[in-house]
Design brief:
Keywords: Membrane, Transmembrane, Transmembrane helix. The structure is a single chain. The chain is mainly α and about 425 residues long. It has 3 domains: about 30-135, no CATH class; about 175-315, no CATH class; about 330-345 and about 355-430. About 75% of the residues lie in helices and about 0% in strands. It has helices at about 15-40, 45-75, 80-100, 110-130, 140-165, 170, 175-210, 215-240, 245-270, 275-300, 315-345, 360-380, 390-415, 420-425. α10 (about 275-300) runs antiparallel to α11. It is globular, with a radius of gyration of 21 Å. The relative contact order is 0.10.
């Protein structure tokens, strides 16, 4: 258990069923999203985006912050009942959005969007109330901003869903492309990457055991202030069509992501612990985000308002290499860690027990890393090099293989080591009102 500081209070965590249920459902979205991408191609693009970014990434974030905000901040979760309620609402909403896009059923989108909005807003209220009782450190501030972005992105999403169904945006005087750009900006750079930056501020030093110097700490504090401001400026500029405002925000966003990646890279280089699947995947993310920031700042400076530049250039490097590998690496520790705490922590010192990294199969972890990294390289090379026509299909098959190996490895942890069965984790009794805070 090296790498876990003494002031982290695992006893403050909610019942293990709550975060683990989020992670299992999120893994199902991961596999479904990759499968839709392989089978559906461009026709399934919007469905795949919502399955992967909303379903896999955002449900993972929802489970992770519900677990670790109380642990890191040493405060009680505001409401276990609300935490248990957010998942089914958000999951139904995200799945419904994907189904609406996949089946070309616009009328389904506002209904599904409403479910998603309610589920996400429950998270925002519950974690927001929890953070109010915590000290405002770097991670807590990032998470607070992420909640703001989660709330805003669902509002923008509902507007787009209504426009798909009944065409309301012209009546409101809002341009569809501007709102679409704002929705994507708030989702990826706001909700997702603000959470990633906050989590890495805790996880990277914790699991590398690298020291954070005064210069790094000062740069990190500056990023904490400037990055959220950049997201708001970029999103607002894109909404109203102001290139100057969007350009100002774009520079801050690219610089902020570059700073987060550089700090992560520095801590990985200075790591004083044995290398793990988590750190291996973080290294891919660090290199990818530095590379993306360097290329994107020039592209955005020239044109921050184009749809093709929504996620910078190349977007594959940001989404797959940056976001994807951070989530993959984090889950390779978070899921076994939660199971270990509830199954083995009270036996430590009394009998031989496995450590956190002993709970999953390292051979499978190596295989999924190889498959996903090779697929990532093929997808990126397709944007610059002459590659065979079958390259995207082959890369998609590798991604599907890697996703199945990854999901299977983590589910096996639950099946073999969890004190509760997998069906109980998914359908077990929720906290009663008397148990709620």
């Amino acid at each position: 258990m090296s790498g876990i500081p003494a002031d982290v209070d695992a006893n403050a965590a909610p019942p293990m069923t709550i975060p683990l249920r989020h992670f299992v459902v999120a893994l199902a979205f991961l596999v479904a999203g990759v499968a839709v991408g392989v089978v559906g191609g461009r026709a399934g693009y919007l469905a795949q985006v919502h399955l992967l970014l909303a379903g896999w990434v955002c449900l993972t974030i929802m489970g992770a912050v519900t677990q670790f905000v109380p642990v890191w901040c040493g405060v009680e979760l505001h409401s276990q009942r609300l935490a248990a309620t957010q998942l089914p609402l958000a999951a139904v909403g995200f799945a419904g959005l994907a189904a609406g896009f996949l089946t070309a059923t616009p009328a389904l989108l506002p209904v599904a969007g409403t479910f998603a909005l309610i589920g996400v807003w429950i998270l925002c209220y519950n974690i927001g109330r929890t953070l109010l009782a915590a000290d405002p450190d770097v991670t807590a501030i990032h998470f607070g901003w992420a909640l703001v972005f989660f709330a805003l992105v669902t509002v923008a999403g509902i507007g787009l869903a209504l426009d798909h169904a009944v065409g309301v945006l012209p009546l409101l005087g809002v341009g569809r492309q501007g709102l679409l750009l704002t929705h994507g900006t708030l989702a990826v750079f706001g909700a997702v990457l603000t959470t990633v930056a906050g989590a890495l501020a805790q996880l990277a030093p914790m699991f590398t055991q690298a020291d954070t110097g005064k210069v790094e700490a000062a740069v990190q504090r500056a990023e904490t202030v400037l990055y959220p401001l950049g997201v708001l400026a970029l999103a607002g500029g894109r909404l109203v069509g102001s290139a100057a405002l969007a350009r100002f925000g774009a520079v801050l966003v690219a610089a902020g992501i570059g700073v987060v990646a550089a700090l992560l890279a520095r801590q990985l280089v200075s790591a004083r612990v044995e290398w793990s699947p988590m750190l291996t995947r973080y290294s891919v993310a660090a290199v990818s985000l530095i590379f993306w920031a360097g290329l994107t700042v020039t592209r955005w400076w020239q044109d921050p308002l184009s749809y093709s530049g929504l996620l910078g250039h190349p977007s594959t490097v940001l989404l797959v290499g940056g976001v994807g590998f951070v989530v993959l690496g984090t889950l390779y520790h978070v899921v076994p860690f939660i199971v270990w705490v509830h199954r083995y922590s009270d036996r430590l010192g009394f009998e031989d027990v496995p450590m956190v990294d002993d709970l999953y199969d390292h051979r499978i972890a190596a295989l999924d890393a190889a498959a996903l990294t090779l697929a990532y390289g093929l997808l990126v090379s397709k944007q610059w090099l002459e590659t065979p026509d079958g390259t995207p299909l082959f890369a998609g098959a590798l991604v599907l293989l890697g996703a199945l190996l990854f999901a299977g490895n983590l589910v096996a942890v639950l099946v073999e080591h969890s004190p509760q069965s997998l069906p109980t984790l998914l359908t077990g009794r929720e906290p009663t009102a008397a148990e709620d805070s």
